[in-house]
Amino acid sequence: MEILPATTNDIDEITNVEIRSKMASFPSLVEPHDIDFETRQYRWKTWFAAQSPATSKPQRVLFKAVADNSIIGYIAVHLTTRYEKDAEIQSFYVLKEYQRKGIGTGLLLNAVNWLETQHTKSLCVGIAKNTPYRAFYIKYGGGHLNEHWICWEDVAAIIMS
Ligand SMILES: CC(C)(COP(=O)(O)OP(=O)(O)OC[C@H]1O[C@@H](n2cnc3c(N)ncnc32)[C@H](O)[C@@H]1OP(=O)(O)O)[C@@H](O)C(=O)NCCC(=O)NCCS
């Protein structure tokens, strides 16, 4: 497995990983628009073009985890104005069959290293209510801003946890 920055050439594969992971990870929380290929693909096109979300700043990166020439997970982060934090995790998915093998941790550490090159300190991420995956962020020192958002005041602490 290797972790590499992604480009717009990866949009279709990233969209498929997002949809497959959502359907397998929390099927009861998924709405039809969450797993509609064209809707999600369009969202990725606007994200790579720095047109979404409205609260984002242009600086952004998506790291992909690749095994046997296929994307098996990714993390997308950008600088933000949301909640007066410096950065936001836009989307973070590992295929269900590859979860709990350390891939998410590897992706998060790549994102944190990139954030440090951008001189950012604080970070936030939106997360669905009632999902067990919250435990991942708590393990890495995230604190609840409210029931939908987890944040860190100092991303460097993630590397040390
Ligand atoms: C969250 C996610 C990206 C983490 O990726 P991952 O490759 O499974 O993470 P890791 O294997 O590095 O997990 C590291 C630790 O986080 C914790 N953790 C991860 N998933 C967990 C779960 N479902 N329940 C409880 N703890 C969990 C564990 O402490 C784990 O260490 P362990 O396996 O040694 O116990 C991945 O599980 C995923 O795609 N989930 C579905 C989508 C999602 O919820 N994304 C985040 C919200 S945007």
UniProtKB/TrEMBL annotation:
Pfam families in alphabetical order: Acetyltransf_1 (PF00583)
Domain N-acetyltransferase as annotated: residue spans: 1-161
SUPFAM superfamilies the UniProt entry points to: Acyl-CoA N-acyltransferases (Nat)
InterPro entries: Acyl_CoA_acyltransferase (IPR016181), GNAT_dom (IPR000182)
Alphabetized GO MF terms: acyltransferase activity, transferring groups other than amino-acyl groups
Gene3D superfamilies, A to Z: 3.40.630.30
The protein, known as: GNAT family N-acetyltransferase
Organism in which the protein naturally occurs: Mucilaginibacter rubeus
